[in-house]
Structures are given as C-alpha cells and as structure tokens.
C-alpha cells in the first residue's frame, strides 16, 4: 500500500483521501484551514455528503487517514501527491488557477524525493504540462518530478459511491513510470482504467460534463415541444432510455442543471474553445436552453396567476439536487428572487439547504415580498396559495396529493421535477403544472 498526500481538503480532496484510505493506502490530507483540519482530525466532516463521515471515522481509527496543516510533513516521503484545491470561475468564465499554482510552488519548495504530482482538480487543457514546467523552475532540491492528470467524476450526494464504484478511472501521464504508479494506486478499486495523454485526460473531464449538460438541455428543449403538442416528456424519456446508444441517465427534464460543476465547466469549455480558435455551438446552445429553463416555472405561474402580490407561496426544495446542502446555481434562487420582486410571501423548506439560502435571502422583507424558512414541509405548505417544487428530495417525492389539498389554502402546485402523477393530482383536485407534459 502507498503513502499518499492530498493537498486541499475540500469536497474533492476529502472524498478522494477518504476513499484512498478505504482502499488501504496511508493518506494524509493537508489544508491551510486550521479549524477545518482540527475538526476533521476528530472525525467531523465539514461537508454534507452521505456516508462520508462514517468512512472518515473508520479510516482515522484504522490509522490510515490523517489531517494536517503542516505541508512539509504532508509532502515528506510520499509515493504521490494529489492536488485537489479549488479552481473557481474567473470573471471571463475560465478557471482560476491561483490555488493550483500556489500549491505547485509550495510542493517545489518542500519535496526532498522524486515525486509524482497528480492534478485531480478540474483544470484547463494543458495545465499538467504547464505546472510541470513551473515546478521545475521552483524546485529547491535536485529531484525528479512529473505532473499527471487524474480527473474526478464524483457527483454531490453520491460522491463516495462514484469514487469507490465509478465507471472508470482516467489517468493522463507522460511517462510509463507515472502510469505504473497510478495504476498501482488504483488497483484495489478494481475499476476500468483508461490511460491517455495528459491533455486528453483534462479534456475528457470537461467533455463529459459538457455532454451531461447537453443531454439535460436537449430533454428540456424536447419538453417544451412535448408540452406544446400534448405529449408527455416522461413517457418519451422512458422510451429513449431503453436505447443503449442513448443511455438511461440524465434524461430528466426539469428546471435545468445547477450546482458548481456543469454550469462552470460548460462556461470554461466555451472559453477554451474560443481561445483555441474553435466554437462549440452545442455547448453554447446547452447554456442558452438552461438559462431559460431555470425560470420556466415562474413564467408558467405568471401566465396562470398573473399576480403574486400577497400570495402565500410554499417553496419546497432549495438545493440544486437532493442529498447535498449546496445551493450554488440552484434554480430555486432565481425563482425566489423573481417571486420576491413580485411581492410574494414565501415559506421555504429544505432539509439541508435553508441555512445557506438564508445567507442569500435572510428572513424578512425583501422589497414588497417576504421570506421565512419553515422547519417542516407541512409548515411550509400550511395555508399556502401556491407551491413551487425545486428539488426532488425523497420526502418531497413521497408527499401524497391529498396532503397538498388538506394543508394548502388553494392548491396550485408548480413542480419543476415532475414528481407526481397527473391523473392522481387531478383526482385530488389540485391544479398541477409540471414540465413537458
Ligand atoms: C457533475 C457530474 O455529474 C459529475 O460526474 C462530476 O464529477 C461533477 O459534476 C464534477 O465535475 O465535480 P454534480 O454537479 O454533483 O456532478 O451533479 P449532477 O448529478 O451532475 O447534477 C447537476 C444538475 O443537473 C442538478 O441540478 C440536477 O438536478 C440536474 N439534472 C441531472 C437534471 O436536471 N436532469 C437530469 O436528468 C440529471
């Protein structure tokens, strides 16, 4: 088993470190955030991710997982150093590589043995090569280094499963030695390993996220047509899913894709393409469809109700998807802003995301509208005139139509996730609007 360092104990770094430890490697996660490291040492995960904390505790107890703020200690005598620091979006949409560059310089100043540095963060094509040139300029000791690319494919809410039982591992290296080392690290995972050039590995990640975005936007486009002609997008998706060439996932029409990855990565793809004299027309279209889709529910409600002033609106689901507390680029935020502008009185509920949403829209008055956060789903629905559904949390999915009828003042339900049966809602006397059907 190998001794591995993971630089950056954020979402990707922590999940990666924990999963390497689970596979038997000895892992040290290093980060400059002292309070985060201190709490992780005691087995407390700073992020909400199903199964993560349990696995953290198990591997800390087994002595395979450590946390430190001491970079020198972290980089000493390691088989490989994985970089998983953030690459936030720059104003022009490209990735900001400041944290990667800082980490590279830091490693250069500290390593005393030949090292393989592996970039896990999502980065522009060519970053591994550039970082290899950079590290050579800053090396303090006479050692050999290679920088490899090993993008991650974990989704929030299922990150542990995606890492331990994912579809594939992509390894981009420049030498056979690095390839063998990375193959050895990943051998216990027993997953298909694809070895490619570093640039191909970097572009595979962006192309994969871009393709997922295309699939969603395509279904949202077809949903609009489906609605116009009286077909049902869910029936259409059911038929399409069985075609192995299309694939069974990412065919759910709804309120568009949010989160920190798909929106950011397709913007970055667009920028890199243009920087390289290319135009990715489909990616551009996916973005346009998504921007429009995020407000589709509000527009439908506006057409039907005309006026939101003084209406009590229950908002169910704030996060960009279930099993996370992340609200970045969530459609709920765009719609809440519009509803508040139009004078609505919002009662919002989310099992995990309310705290973060309250940081964007604090409880109280916002112009002519107001927002409050309910502790339970029922509390949010109580006395509401209209209900908006933005996230397919299990407890929202399992609501019975009769409950809307019983708790709400006048049951208008606008569902951005197509969670309910049209007939059942109609039978229960609910005015139900969903997407593409
Ligand atoms: C995405 C990719 O799925 C991961 O493979 C990748 O590793 C990750 O980005 C990353 O780059 O780090 P994530 O953003 O966590 O993962 O979430 P997804 O499951 O991809 O969902 C993104 C958005 O698409 C959500 O808002 C979701 O509701 C929406 N979606 C997804 C749909 O509207 N319809 C679908 O059929 C599927």
UniProtKB/TrEMBL annotation:
The keyword Transferase does not apply. NAD(+) binds at residues 31, 36, 87, 122, 264, 328. Residues 314-422 form the UDP-glucose/GDP-mannose dehydrogenase C-terminal domain. Pfam families: UDPG_MGDP_dh (PF00984), UDPG_MGDP_dh_C (PF03720), UDPG_MGDP_dh_N (PF03721). Substrate binds at residues 205, 250-254, 258, 321. It catalyses: UDP-alpha-D-glucose + 2 NAD(+) + H2O = UDP-alpha-D-glucuronate + 2 NADH + 3 H(+). InterPro entries: 6-PGluconate_DH-like_C_sf (IPR008927), NAD(P)-bd_dom_sf (IPR036291), UDP-Glc/GDP-Man (IPR017476), UDP-Glc/GDP-Man_DH_C (IPR014027), UDP-Glc/GDP-Man_DH_C_sf (IPR036220), UDP-Glc/GDP-Man_DH_dimer (IPR014026), UDP-Glc/GDP-Man_DH_N (IPR001732), UDPglc_DH_bac (IPR028357). The keyword NAD applies. It comes from the Bacteria. Pathway: Nucleotide-sugar biosynthesis; UDP-alpha-D-glucuronate biosynthesis; UDP-alpha-D-glucuronate from UDP-alpha-D-glucose: step 1/1. GO terms for biological process: polysaccharide biosynthetic process; UDP-glucuronate biosynthetic process. The active site is at residue 261. SMART domains: UDPG_MGDP_dh_C. Keywords: NAD, Oxidoreductase. Gene3D superfamilies: Cytochrome c1, transmembrane anchor, C-terminal, NAD(P)-binding Rossmann-like Domain. It is an enzyme of class 1 (oxidoreductase). Belongs to the UDP-glucose/GDP-mannose dehydrogenase family. NCBIfam families: NDP-sugDHase. This is UDP-glucose 6-dehydrogenase.
